[in-house]
Amino acid sequence: xxxxxxxxxxxxxxxxxxxxxxxxxxxxxxxxxxxxxxxxxxxxxxxxxxxxxxxxxxxxxxxxxxxxxxxxxxxxxxxxxxxxxxxxxxxxxxxxxxxxxxxxxxxxxxxxxxxxxxxxxxxxxxxxxxxxxxxxxxxxxxxxxxxxxxxxxxxxxxxxxxxxxxxxxxxxxxxxxxxxxxxxxxxxxxxxxxxxxxxxxxxxxxxxxxxxxxxxxxxxxxxxxxxxxxxxxxxxxxxxxxxxxxxxxxxxxxxxxxxxxxxxxxxxxxxxxxxxxxxxxxxxxxxxxxxxxx
Amino acid sequence: xxxxxxxxxxxxxxxxxxxxxxxxxxxxxxxxxxxxxxxxxxxxxxxxxxxxxxxxxxxxxxxxxxxxxxxxxxxxxxxxxxxxxxxxxxxxxxxxxxxxxxxxxxxxxxxxxxxxxxxxxxxxxxxxxxxxxxxxxxxxxxxxxxxxxxxxxxxxxxxxxxxxxxxxxxxxxxxxxxxxxxxxxxxxxxxxxxxxxxxxxxxxxxxxxxxxxxxxxxxxxxxxxxxxxxxxxxxxxx
Lengths: 294, 238
Ligand SMILES: Nc1ncnc2c1ncn2[C@@H]1O[C@H](COP(=O)(O)OP(=O)(O)O)[C@@H](O)[C@H]1O
Ligand SMILES: [Mg+2]
Prior knowledge:
- The complex is a heterodimer of chains A (294) and B (238).
- Chain A is 73% helix and 2% strand.
- Chain A is mostly helical and 294 residues long.
- Chain A has a single domain (2-119, 135-291), classed as Orthogonal Bundle (ABC transporter involved in vitamin B12 uptake, BtuC), CATH 1.10.3470.
- A two-stranded antiparallel sheet of chain A has the order 1-2.
- Chain B has a domain at 84-156.
- Chain B starts with a strand and ends with a helix.
- Residues 41-42, 84, 163 of chain B line the site of magnesium ion.
């Protein structure tokens, strides 16, 4: 029982990060239909920038966190301005390839600036791990899960209760109609990249004290976050959250009960199964043909 | 002139959809554009709304040049389009569709004023009020058309352009829609209307243009065109 619980807690932690990455995918997908495969890099940048501001610059925690989120948001903005906007009228597959290119470039810059070593910093709160039925749960794990849940609610409220969020959703439902009603589609696209980058940064900041962070974590995070997003059906926030937690838990159980080397295969197997049984489901009911003339 | 289009040419790739169009009309009138399928009617409205790039030519509205302005700027100037096929946000509720119609004005006028404008739309189309929580895609055709018009009205337009608003509707509903258009015009909104139902459109229009394969081939008062032999033959069923 205690071993199982231990695996469960560790699964919830990584699952929370996957859920956040999945949400990030959804934000951009919802406004543009682009699958942003640089999503994982946002998480890495968040964690590394947090280290930079709090450990290298010795700034206070809150200021560091705000700066880390803001700078990652800025990178999201630059990405949209410099790589997405100039080619936005061309086809979707090209744009997805551009996001891969961006992720490679970002990784290069990160390696150049931070090297290949893993980074970490102190957990948000000091204190003993909490005992539950013989298992340990680190306080930082609670932070990660708490922050994830908080942001899930925030994103939900944003898209369903605010005009700005609804306008963003409208761009996804029908970009031409959005334009006709005077919604500035370009602005919404840009905003989706900024928001999504900031989401990624938050996840990175929260998880780095537990899992450490290094320059090349991005692609794996992107794969798992993408898996979470398609498990829930792309574009559905709540689905991707559940998907993220499921993958996290399955991975941790696989690592614990089968072999630690097998854990990264879990997400890939899930993706393959979805591709095999529900290929159309990946892009939802509206298929690539309909994708998107924004 | 309220709206003036000079030497407008629009091409899709190599295909010329509008050829050297010149037209103008006065404020507060109902102006309709009739013509066969594929004549270029939608292209004309879409180029006014800057949804398709124009090749050459200029468009003036209310004394200023508007060709080249973004759609969201055009809405702010008081130009609204009810597009062909309605183009609702089918996944969102009726209320959200309406509110988004005034999205560009959110900062200027605030949510309260937006709700007030929605109330006005509900007065015009009471059925929409009953269904305001319903997902737009689940409405009947007539209700969707009302919602599309309502959404355009949320921007408080001075010029309302409607692209085949009666398409696919039962005759009863078509009459309702036309009555709404007349009512809106009586409230000083200028109407630019595209209609397949040419007879009905000409009857209520102050002025009309006839487009054939990208060119304006005839224009005049609605009442005159109704009696024109050629038009009778081509568009009014003999
Ligand atoms: N997006 C488009 N791409 C290419 N050709 C188009 C497009 N839209 C319209 N056309 C062509 O332009 C011409 C005019 O179309 P349209 O303005 O829709 O006519 P109408 O509204 O009078 O039926 C037609 O020949 C049509 O095939
Ligand atoms: Mg048409």
